[in-house]
Amino acid sequence: MRLSTRFIFGFFGLLSLGTLLSGAGPNIVIILVDDMGYGDLGCYNQDSKIPTPNIDRLASEGMRFRDAHAPGPLCHMSRYGLMTGRYPFRIDVGIWPRLPLIAEGQMTIASLLKARGYRTSMVGKWHLGFKENGYENPLPGGPIDCGFDTYFGIRASTDIPPYFYIRDDLAISPPTEFIEQRQSEGWTNIQGEFWREGGIAPGLELKDVLPRFTNEAIEVIDDHARIGGRNKEPLMLYLAYPAPHTPWLPSPEFVGKSGASMYGDFMMMVDSEIGRVLSSLDQAEMAEDTMVIFTSDNGPVWYDSDVERFDHDSSGGLRGMKSDAWEAGHRMPLIVRWPGEVKKGSVSDHLVCFTDLLATFADIHDVKLPKAVGPDSFSFLPALKQRKPRKTPIRETFVMKSGSGGLMTIRSGDWKFIEGQGSGGFSGRVRGSDPLAVKGRAEAAQELKESEPEAQLYNLSQDIGETINLFDDNPEIVSELRREMNYIVTSGSSR
């Protein structure tokens, strides 16, 4: 109740308490996977070597978006935008290892729905920082202080120590033991069974994290069916899996079952775990009243040589990979199943960014967001219902900062402009090097500078693979996109 009270009389003091708490909406289950490519799912890539029957079924029962984008091509950037409706380039996302990225009292999708009477729960990877003061002490600034009634999860990825489970805002068991770094032969040192050395809680096994999160999510659903259903409170569950991000740790029944080696096997396991969650909704008789949203936080760590080795294109014909300004870094599968509201088996080319969840949830409940809230959030409810927007503005542009090189990027209509050379991310690095390494960057950058235009312009309607740089041929378009991008960056809002 601490956050709920502060929230209602903070941002939503602009609205009546009665308006906020009246009326019900659908249950909402958001399933976010980690480092999955646009081409991994069968429903997005008929040539995928990874069977994903459960996610494919979700697509057949709902709407599949083909032009949906993460707010940033790295984990913490993407999650910040999803939670707040604000582009992550507007803050210093680099503070997450020691401080929260979400400011106290800042509206989130959870606090919005909590004020609408939802029971809000999160399970999984947070990666948005806590105010850390020793893991034996409470961890402020996390999910419990950002609108969630309950939380069970981990601080960041399963390759970033320390490794320990958190219940609400307390470590279940502090990371008092030590685990050695692990890597897999035949892969780069950011692929395979890779994790970094560091602290770990006694008894915690990294291979158990994925199924443990599924068990916790099913418990949330079952509890709601027993308690929430009686009280007529809708449920909002945010399930943030830390997979198929490294370490790739498929359980024995999936080993060797895909055509994409251990990565594909692990992705099959992720699909199976999602199937368990969907089955729990069926068993709880909640599926017909639940909006399920599925997507990935950013692109895969899958090199051209991996495509050649396994004949599996994790990026699905897009250019690049995780962290890049190129499309594979941030264009993501997005599937929404909402029985009775979203047409089964439908497909949309509506431009969407994960920041748009906040405005969409507000639109569902006929709540007008204050100007300072969700400044980069546009409702895509009209696209879901396949009708023309009446009251709310629609997204026409998308602005992003790459994950490593800091390249600002704007998408407007068919045009995409990248303010600089190269990927701005992991692509182009020496195979086998850690993304944090700097060796060889200066030489590669000089060669690129001498051979390529100073920036990049692509027409995605004709060149989705970003193979033809039209920068030198279209100075007027470049000038207009630069002006538009600079305005969005400096104005503090795109809505």
List keywords for this structure.
495 residues; alpha/beta; 11-stranded mixed sheet; 4-stranded antiparallel sheet; 12 helices; disordered N terminus
Strand content: 15-25%
Distance between the termini: 30 Å
Secondary structure: number of strands: 17
Summarize the biggest pleated sheet: 11 strands, mixed
Q: What do the pLDDT scores average to?
A: 91
Radius of gyration, whole Å? 22 Å
Give the overall form: globular
Helix/strand/pairing class, anyone? Answer: alpha/beta
Low-confidence sequence ranges? 1-23, 430-439
**Order of helices and strands, N to C?**
HHEHEHHEEEEEEHEHEHEEEHHEEEHEH
The count of helical stretches stands at 12
- What portion of residues is helical? 25-40%
Detail the topology: elements first, then pairings:
Blueprint: H1 2-8, H2 17-21, E1 27-33, H3 53-60, E2 63-69, H4 75-84, H5 109-115, E3 119-125, E4 150-154, E5 165-167, E6 170-171, E7 177-179, E8 198-200, H6 209-231, E9 235-240, H7 261-283, E10 290-296, H8 304-310, E11 331-337, E12 346-348, E13 352-353, H9 356-364, H10 381-384, E14 397-401, E15 408-412, E16 415-418, H11 441-451, E17 456-459, H12 475-491
Structure description:
26% of the residues lie in helices and 16% in strands. With 495 residues, the chain is α/β, with parallel strands linked by helices. Strands 1, 2, 3, 4, 5, 6, 9, 10, 11, 12 and 13 form an 11-stranded mixed sheet that branches. α1 crosses α5. The radius of gyration is 22 Å and the shape is globular.
The gist of it:
It is built from twelve helices and 17 strands. The longest helix is centred in the middle third of the chain and has 23 residues.
